[in-house]
Predict the structure.
Amino acid sequence: MLHFISRGSNYILMLMCGIYALSSFTIFLPSSESAQKGRMDRQEAFVYVFHFICFLVLFLQTLNPKILLLYAGQVLFFRLMIAIYSRLYTDSSRVIMNHTCFLLAISFVMLARLSLEESIKQFAIVVVTDIICLLVPFIVKKAFWLNKLKWFYGILGLTFLCSVFVIGSTHNGSTNWISLGPVTLQPSEFVKITFIFFIAATLANPPGKRVMGVTILFAVAHVVVLVLEKDLGGALLFFVLFILLCFASTGRLIYILGGLAGGAGASVAAYYLFSHVRTRFQAWQNPWSDIDGKGYQITQSLFAIGTGGWFGMGLTQGRPSDIPIANSDFIFSAISEEFGLVFAIGILFVYLGIFVHFIMIAMDVEGKFYKLLAYGFSICFIMQVFLSVGGVTKFIPSTGVTLPLISYGGSSVCSTLIVFAIMQGIFMIAYIKPEEEEEGNDEETDISVPS
Amino acid sequence: MKKLISLFLPKDGKTIRTNRYMFLTCLFFVLLFFGLMGYLIRFMILDSDKIIASPYNRRTENLTQHVLRGKILSEDGQVLAESEIDEDGEEKRIYPHDRTYAHVVGYSSHGQSGLESAYNYDLLTSHMDLRTQLINGINGIKNPGDNIITTLDSRLQEAAYEALDDYQGAIVAIEPSTGKIRAMVSKPDYNPNTINEIWSEIIGDASSSVLLNRATLGLYPPGSTYKVITALEYVTEHLHSYRDFVYKCKGETVVNSVKIHCYKETEHGKETLEQAFAHSCNTAFVTLGCKLDKNNFIRLNHNLLFEQNIQFDLPFTRSRFKFTEKSEKSDLPQTVIGQGETLMTPLHNALIMCAIANDGIMMHPMLVDQITAADGTTVKKHNSRILMELEEKEAIPALKTMLEKAVTEGTASYLQDEDYTAAGKTGTAENEKEKPHSWFVGYSNVEKPDLVVCVVVENTGSGSDYAVPIAKDVFDAYYDHEEE
């Protein structure tokens, strides 16, 4: 009986995800303010309904009262967050807010299905982070000196990144965690933010040759440290970020070409130097020759997606626990297994919608620092989604990257929420310009416009 | 498009060059994601069926909670495997024909094999109409899984099973025009109904090969059955002059410094190509084989799918052909008479005969005709597909004549004087053991071939003495059946 409720509800959820994904693009169409508000309200309502159906299925399956408490807590959290935000920042982007809630709702559901304990922990982290993040847009809006601290960002990031060599611990084969008392952190998740600040601040005013040279050295240092930590996804992410930021800032193709050549060279070198790189690559090339060994993760992931089919096994009806690291790196496969591939592709569209929205903010904001900042965060966000989903579906070699806002992991969700808050800040700078800021920014805009 | 682009440009019209680069990267990532989505859709349509059937995919265990494993049936409706629920509510897999279909159908506890493994996922998927499924679901009754209708003909399978008796070896019977496998037997065998009881014994005994399906996994030297390929190449190269070939057999000869003798040193005397083929004269074939164009000969073997994996429902070992342009000259004489390093599976040998019987077109070997829901509606129908087409079509009539001659006046004459006509080639393949493997591969109804039968009997003696009578039993069963 439950089996049928679960499977039947899947079709409703799939349809909802489809409509939501579509709405994440239709909101870009020009329309009256009231129509736009209607769209936003509908999106928000979808989140609640989706969340409700999923938790109903979960509750019927387990009859665990804790699930009801968790559900109530989460609904309250969504409602309060949206209310406080729209009060505190009347001009903030509701699109970002809705999408955050939608992705978090999927995350909450999937984690509660996989492990209730972890789900509660994750929820607590999200609540705390979001409260802290309430301040972030304010800081971004008011602090003009943010673009003057480039060396501070660079040194802070590198130091933080290197801290794993002193107080690091190993998780899932990568030594990229540090333990501070009861808290374990993944520095690279936060260094992403300082790195983007660092590069954006450097490039905002056309740097001299020496400054540029040192900046490149810093960027290379970031990447090398990540490779040494065996965090290949992180290394690739930083590398692409640097290349694309340089390209967007100057428009010189040499950065792309040089980057491609350097990247290819570095990949080949890494392949021969590091056994873990070889393992990952071989597991991607032919996982079927070693299903029990190297290919274990990726084959289990493909089994999950394949068995789930287009419409999914139904929430709680699959075996996502067969997939290694199903709650984190491989959560996309777990979602696809139970909700179906159609649903999973819907999520990809929502991610794309967020990315396009971010890029639009980057294009609309004035001031090259903010522009590059917004652009950097857009790339960082979409690259992470691509590396994660591409890796678990054998589209590209697996690099062990978390899925933003959905994967379990405090550092990951925390850093993504901070990024979203920063984007809210930039959004407000872009679309409402208090007088005093306008002057300050115009100057920079003039400099950054090449004739 | 312009509209779309303008959507991304600043509203005040002040275009900044940086925006253009940002727009370009945005476009790049959007396309990248479309690529990823396309890849996922392609994966689901094309690859996922095969992938999820893997025994490593433990998700099918979940399906067993809601679905009663489907049946496996012969084409004429005999139940080959079915699941029953006993009084204790335990599910039991029953194989009504005990050993007869052991290797083809396989088993499904202690891992899986045969069709039970290949179609595991289909057997555990129910395509009953939604209402029945819903009612069953509410009442807590398992839905019946889909049924697998094989291409096997129960009469032929039983005849083949009986015919092979207590010998070790394999039999394959295929309909050449469609590629449908009508019978497949391998011995020694086991009773799948008792797999749980005999499992530890089988696994404990390293020398036991009862689980091995010799028809698809057994590699045997083809012996004289390989002369079909040598003759095909020779006739192709001498399309207008092969009839002029004359050889005087003295029972043994030396070619490329290798001494070759005929079976039991028989002296065949003066003979044409057809006669040499019909009597399976080694010395004549070594002589003409060593004059073949090496490159063409190697290419023909590769076209005939040696050293290549052939897609099939059951695990199918690729046949070995080690002769290359760089091989020693002295390797050639053994190769052209099927001794050397060449090794073949019985199914592959049957497929080559199918290609000849079917005028140069080799059909994909097919073991499952369709998958049906428990209520009989078709879920998936398999169609015959061409696997390979021979370029040497002009030589096929000549080859057919030779194969017929082997029956009318040669080594396979045991098949003479029947209600049906037959053609084929015997083989007596020497191996490391004392007695040779006995082969026969051929077809019946020479005008329009109905059935290809391939028989290999391990370590017995000549093809004429052992394999041909067994093949005859299978052909007889086919035509008895036809009359009714």
The radius of gyration of chain A is 22 Å.
